[in-house]
Amino acid sequence: QVQLVESGGGLVQPGGSLRLSCAASGSIFSISGTGWYRQAPGKQRELVAEITSGGSTNYADSVKGRFTISRDNAKNTVYLQMNSLKPEDTAVYYCNLDPPWYEGPFDYWGQGTQVTVSS
Length: 119
Fold this sequence. Notes:
Elements: E1 4-7, E2 10-12, E3 18-24, E4 33-39, E5 46-51, E6 57-59, E7 67-72, E8 77-82, E9 91-98, E10 108-109, E11 113-117
Parallel strand pairs: 2-11
Antiparallel strand pairs: 1-3, 3-8, 4-5, 4-9, 5-6, 7-8, 9-10, 9-11
């Protein structure tokens, strides 16, 4: 069983920065893809950024050049560095872990952390 625990959310002014962290339990983190999603009120959950087990990254167009995803397999942790934050970045941010197919059919989600960008 895998548990994901996010931290680092909060209130920040437009143009500010935050760093989200997501720590995973268990032993499959290093072989799994992982990423960050967000959900704003009244909207569907959307992909923000993802990183494969090999380190390849993918970003939503809306955050390219502002957000950076990274991972530390020794710490079972994925990070999301968010710079130049905008009010439209306000959402609950969720960490996701997507294990390889041979580890079973399920992926895993954290409980979410609130990010609010407001003056």
